[in-house]
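Late entry, written up from scratch paper. The run itself happened at the end of the previous shift, but nothing got recorded in the book at the time, so transcribing now.
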Amino acid sequence: MPSETTAETSQPIFQLQTIYLKDLSLEQPNSPAIFLEQKMPDLQITVNVGVEALAETTYETTITVTLTATVGDKTAYLIEGKQAGIFEVRNLPKETLDQVLYITCASIVYPYLRANIADIVLRSGFPPVHLVEINFEAYYRERVQKGLDSQESAGNGAAPAESSPQQ
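Output as recorded:
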C-alpha cells in the first residue's frame, strides 16, 4: 500500500484556485472634447505576463494590458488592466512548470481581461475594442530564447504587442 500512496502523491496536480481583477484604471484626459472628433482612435496595446510563487505549490499568473487610444496628438483614453489567477501546481519538472504558468495559466486568465477591457471601453463612451487572441506559447518561446528565467522576469515579461485589435 505505501507504493500506491507514493504514486498518488507524485501525480501532477493542476487546479485553478481563483481568477480576479487585480487592477483596472481608465483615464480620459481630453474629455469631453475628444468625443467631438470625427476620426477613429489609433490604438497602441502592450501586454505583460508575470508569474509569482505565493507558496511552495501555489502560483499567481498576472496579465497586464495597457491600451492607449489617440486621435491625432490627443489621448482619447488610457486603460490599464491587470487580471490574475491563482493556481495550485504540483509535481512538475521546472521546465514544464514554467510552460504551465506562462502558457496554460495565461491562456485561462486572458479571456477575463479581454472582457473587462472591452466592457470598460464601451462604458467609457468609445466604440468597442476587442483585443486579439494572444499565442502565449509563442510568447513563452520568445522569453526562453532571450534567456529569461522566471526569477528575472516575474512581472516584467512582455508579450508581443498587438497593434491592430479587432474592432
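The radius of gyration is 19 Å.
(Scratch paper discarded after transcription.)
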